[in-house]
Amino acid sequence: MVTPALKLDDPIEDVAERLGKLFSSVPISREPMFSWLHITNDATVLGEELRRDRREDAADRAGRILIRLLEFLGYYLYCHQPSEHDHLANLVAKTLRQASFEEEIKDLKEGPSRWILWKFPYSCSKCGQRPCHCMVYPLVLENRREDPERYVEMFKEKASEARKKLNGKELKPFTLQSLFEHFGSIFENSYHYQDPWKIGMHLYEEIGEATTELSRIYLQLRAQEANFKIKDALAKTFGLSKQKLDLETGKITNVSARNKRAQEIDIELQKLRADFEEKPWDRFEKLVRDKFKEEVSDVFSWIAAVILRLDPKLEKFKALLKLLSREGEFGAHELVCKYCRQPACDNVCLVTHSVSAEITEKLSKF
Q: Which has the minimum average pLDDT: 172-176, 230-234, 252-256, 269-273?
């Protein structure tokens, strides 16, 4: 069966699933941390291209990151079949497939469109406005930990209201095109005059934060395999959290606001402690699940920012989509690996290209 080539008007969930299937027959790469390393590696190369102001190459690399991210999500959301040997892969697939943000979003199926809309409800996630107004009041945003009252009054409540309004709207999955339009309509004004390398640094930061959450999924697996008694460590765990939160609260300059924030944190900490007492790993898993999806949404936003800043007409991105297609029977275009040009990539492609790349670097660099 022919898998159709990718187009800008394809829903991103469909794109993710097709990419997941394209590379699902490369078992060597089917380990979450190994697959995610390809994303972090591409982000590192992107940083070098931006540092050297190689804008066309940087735009192409940013497009590759978007494709790799969709492939990673697509495989674990739609393609991975549980196995007794693939423990981490099973946990990642379970994490991505479980429902999230159910209070605000009712209609969309679980997937990146749902996560993105929760984080960016047709508005900036921090100020709740479109276009984003954070740059108009930079100190309010940057000092929100020291002066939370001003931030809550000006921004946070608007963001909360924007999320509440999602339930009254007809929500549709993003296409590749509407994904760019969504983030462009919110943030284009704020990054239009920014140096591209600064946008790239934001992207790298968000990839790093998503990596942290992925490592915590791995931590859960490792701890459970080691039969770690998390209930026995809850007192120390929450004691450490209290210390860290007290340090953060202590930065608030207004005494009344500091005391109010401290009371709010104590109440929430007690609720979490009760949840952890009952089902510690389930509660931890939910925290990590929601945070990972939130961070992935941030990654999408900054990938779009880099691409739109460097390639506003998406010419380089369209060229990348063409590289992922070939003409099949009766003139139809099908999805293929850009390296081996096959509709189902394999281990030979991955290994030969990786080893040859190492040889090339060894002999080409002085």
A: 252-256
d(CA 42, CA 63): 10
- Render 266-282 in DSSP notation, one character per residue: HHHHHHHHHHHHH-HHH
Q: What is the DSSP code (8-state) at residue 120?
A: S
Check pLDDT > 80 for residue 330: no
Alpha-carbon span 250 to 269, nearest angstrom: 17
Please give the Cα distance from 240 to 273 (Å, whole number): 13
Ramachandran area for residue 331 (φ above 0: left; ψ -120 to 50: alpha; else beta) = left
Does residue 105 surpass a pLDDT of 90? no
Instruction: Tell me if 261 sits within 8 A of 249, measured CB to CB.
Output: yes
Indicate the average pLDDT of the chain. 92
Q: Percent of the chain at pLDDT above 70?
A: 99
Whether 18 and 4 have beta carbons less than 8 Å apart is answered as yes
**By the 8 A CB rule, do 52 and 197 touch?**
no
Tokens 């005391």 appear where? 259
pLDDT on residue 154: 78
Q: Check: CB of residue 334 under 8 Å from CB of residue 3.
A: yes
Q: Measured between alpha carbons, how far is 73 from 66 in angstroms, rounded to an integer?
A: 11
Dist. CA 14–CA 200, nearest whole Å: 27
Rounded to whole angstroms, how far apart are CA atoms 254 and 247? 15
Six token digits for residue 232: 């026995």
How far is it, in rounded angstroms, from Cα 332 to Cα 3? 10
